[in-house]
Amino acid sequence: MTLRLEAEQDKQLAQVAEHLGISKQQAVALAVERFLELEWQRAVGRQVIDLVMTRDKELMERLADA
């Protein structure tokens, strides 16, 4: 895979990688891993909320009216 970054992005990536004591490749892999984990958690959270709102629709409506 080839990753094309703007000059400023590449500069910032190099600084972060240096600060962490890792290569730019490792920094990108870590960033992707964290992004995927966060998005997975958000997707699961949305599914749980949808389930609760569907399952407990009447209760939610009564609470909204209270």
In short:
The protein has helices at 7-20, 24-55, 57-65. By secondary structure, it is mainly α.
Explain what the structure shows.
The protein has 66 residues and is an all-alpha fold. It has helices at 7-20, 24-55, 57-65. α1 (7-20) packs across α2 (24-55). It is rod-shaped and about 55 Å long.
Portion in beta strands: under 5%
Mean pLDDT: 95
- Major beta-sheet overview: none
Number of helices: 3
Proportion in helices:
over 70%
Low-pLDDT stretches are none
Question: Count of DSSP E strands?
Answer: 0
Coarse shape: rod-shaped
Radius of gyration: 21 Å
Spatial gap, N to C terminus = 55 Å
Q: How many structurally independent domains?
A: 1
Q: What is the H/E string?
A: HHH
Find the structural class using helix and strand composition: mainly alpha
Give the SSE map:
Blueprint: H1 7-20, H2 24-55, H3 57-65
Helix pairs in contact: 1-2
Using brief descriptors, characterize the structure shown:
66 residues, 3 helices, single chain, mainly alpha, rod-shaped
